[in-house]
Design goal:
Strand content: 5-15%
Shape: globular
Number of helices: 15
Largest sheet: 3 strands, mixed
Strand order of the largest sheet: 1-2-3
Mean pLDDT: 81
Oligomer: single chain
Helix content: 55-70%
Order of helices and strands: HEHEHEHHHHHHHHHHHH
Length: about 325
C-alpha cells in the first residue's frame, strides 16, 4: 500500500480520537501515541493506534470521561488500540517495574526523566516472550505483515542489530536461542509448545496444569502471570528465576497502566492473586537472599499501587 494512503488512514482514525480528546484540552492531560505509529513500524489496515495519557490524579474524573468516550468509539473505530494511563504521582513507582525495552516503545514516557538502563538478558528474554505471545497468531496467519515489527524488535533485542528474515515462531525461537547462546536447550522447545497449547491450558484441571508447569519451568519463568492463582513451587535455574522476577515486574506495570481495558472485578481478583503469589514465593525455604530482596521490593511496589487502586476515587477505569 502506498505510504500516502497509509498516512491518510492513520490521520482519519486519529482525527476521531482527537475529537474526543479535544473536549478536554483545558485539562492538565498530556497525550501521545506509542509503539508502531510512534516508531514507524506500523502496517496499514493491521496496526492500531496505541495511546498514552499522562496526568495528575486530580484529573481522575476527566480521565474517566475520556476513557468512556474512547471505549464507545472503539466499537466502530478499529484503529484505537491499548490506552495506557500514567499518573504523575505514581510514575516513578510504576516505571520501576517497566521493562526497559517496553519503555522504549513509548518515547513520550521514556523522555520524562527516567534513566533507560541497558536491558539485562532476562529482560530481553521476557520482552521477546511477551512480544511473541502477543504476535504468534498473526505470525502464522499473515507473517508478511509482521516483518517491520520484528525488524524493530530485533534491533532492540540484539546488540549487533541482527535482522530477522521471514518471521515465524520457529524461526524467531531458533534465531534467539542461537544468538543469545542460552545453555538450556529446552528453552525454544518449551516456548514453542506453550504457544501451541496456550489456548487450552486454562481448561486443564489444576493437577494436570501443575504437572505441565513443573515439566516446563520456562512457562513459569516467562508467563507466571497467567498462573498466579496456583500456589506452586517450580524448580528454576538462576536465569529462570531472574526471568520470573522480570515477568512479575512487567505484570505489575501492566496492571496499573492498562487497567482501563480490564473490568474492575477481574483486575481486583488478579491483583489479589498476584499478592498471594508473591507472598507464597517468599515462603520457599531454599530461596536465595538476593531473590528474597527482589521479591520483597516487587511486593512492596505492588501493595503501594494496589492500595491506591482499592480507593475507587483513584481509579479511572472504563
Amino acid at each position: 500500500m502506498p505510504s500516502f494512503v497509509s498516512k491518510f488512514l492513520f490521520f482519519v482514525g486519529f482525527f476521531f480520537v482527537k475529537r474526543v480528546l479535544g473536549e478536554f484540552l483545558k485539562s492538565d492531560i498530556s497525550v501521545a501515541i506509542r509503539n508502531s505509529y510512534a516508531l514507524d513500524y506500523y502496517e496499514p489496515l493491521f496496526s492500531d493506534i496505541d495511546i498514552t495519557l499522562l496526568t495528575s490524579s486530580k484529573q481522575k474524573n476527566v480521565i474517566a470521561k475520556i476513557l468512556q468516550k474512547l471505549k464507545a468509539q472503539k466499537t466502530w473505530n478499529r484503529m484505537i488500540g491499548e490506552i495506557n494511563v500514567y499518573y504523575s504521582e505514581d510514575l516513578g513507582q510504576v516505571l520501576r517495574c517497566c521493562n526497559p525495552l517496553e519503555l522504549r516503545r513509548d518515547p513520550f514516557i521514556a523522555s520524562h526523566g527516567h534513566v533507560l538502563n541497558p536491558p539485562t538478558l532476562e529482560e530481553k528474554i521476557v520482552f521477546f516472550a511477551k512480544m511473541l505471545e502477543a504476535d504468534h497468531v498473526a505470525l502464522q496467519v499473515r507473517p508478511e505483515t509482521r516483518q517491520k515489527k520484528w525488524d524493530y524488535h530485533s534491533r532492540q533485542v540484539f546488540a549487533d542489530g541482527l535482522q530477522v528474515r521471514s518471521p515465524s515462531v520457529d524461526h524467531l525461537l531458533e534465531t534467539v536461542a542461537s544468538h543469545w547462546q542460552i545453555s538450556d536447550t529446552g528453552w525454544k522447545n518449551s516456548l514453542r509448545e506453550y504457544f501451541s497449547r496456550k489456548n487450552q491450558l486454562m481448561t486443564f484441571p489444576h493437577a494436570e496444569l501443575e504437572a505441565l508447569l513443573r515439566e516446563n519451568p520456562w512457562w513459569w519463568a516467562c508467563f507466571a502471570n497467567k498462573f498466579c492463582f496456583l500456589n506452586l513451587n517450580v524448580e528454576l535455574s538462576s536465569l529462570q528465576w531472574r526471568c520470573l522476577l522480570a515477568t512479575l515486574r512487567w505484570e505489575i506495570w501492566g496492571i496499573y497502566v492498562q487497567s482501563a481495558d480490564i473490568e474492575e472485578g477481574s483486575l481486583t481478583l488478579h491483583s489479589q492473586n498476584l499478592t498471594r503469589f508473591l507472598s507464597h514465593l517468599l515462603t520457599i525455604p531454599t530461596l536465595e537472599e538476593f531473590l528474597q530482596r527482589e521479591l520483597k521490593e516487587i511486593l512492596d511496589v505492588h501493595e503501594k499501587l494496589f492500595a491506591r487502586f482499592r480507593d475507587p476515587a483513584q481509579r479511572p477505569g472504563f
